[in-house]
Amino acid sequence: MGLKDPNRPFPAGIGDAAGVGLLKWRMQSTDESMVPLTINYWPSVSGNETYVSIEYEASSMFDLWNVVIFVPLPALREAPNVRQVDGEWRFDPRNSLLEWSILLIDNSNRSGSMEFIVPPTDSSVFFLISVNFSATNTFSDLKAVNVLPQKGGAPPKFGQRTQ
């Protein structure tokens, strides 16, 4: 793989932000077992509080690293009252987000949960959540095994990233 114009340098460090992509891969399926991480959550108002329960379930296909689940919150002056969490959490008041972090999801913790309380609010505030994670393998099992310079010369040092 390479750029269409081999005379142009590859814009390192900016990736898709500049519209330069070497490989894009997409998978569509209605088979939910193919989803690496499923998240369910239920906000419910009771009296003068909104209770939010969140659960994740991870597929055994992958170990997931540096998982962060971003939950939108109403504008709050103080952090939500986190009652229970598998992992760690952080309140981002500037962006009205609760960040739930799990360093590693593997066979020891394929499922987990978090519960917190905020003042009464419309449940639509809690949608849409966002999730980031990395994994050491892919659906396609595609691996880069070598890097060759397009204009000849010695190959650069190349190796698989380790966690």
Report on the architecture of this protein.
With 163 residues, this protein is mainly beta. The chain has no helices and eight strands. It has strands at residues 37-46, 49-58, 64-72, 81-85, 88-92, 97-105, 111-118, 130-135. Strands 1-2-7-4 form a four-stranded antiparallel beta sheet, with no helix packed on it. It has a four-stranded antiparallel beta sheet with strand order 5-6-3-8, with no helix packed on it. The chain is elongated, with a radius of gyration of 21 Å. The model has no long low-confidence stretch (mean pLDDT 85).
For the structure shown, list the relevant keywords.
single chain; 163 residues; mainly beta; four-stranded antiparallel sheet; elongated
Q: Which geometry do the CA atoms define?
A: elongated
Can you count the helices? Answer: 0
On the 0 to 100 scale, the average pLDDT is: 85
Order of helices and strands: EEEEEEEE
Uncertain spans: none
The computed structural class is: mainly beta
Strand order of the largest sheet: 1-2-7-4
Largest sheet: 4 strands, antiparallel
Rg = 21 Å
Relative strand content: 35-45%
What's the helical proportion of residues? under 10%
Strands, count: 8
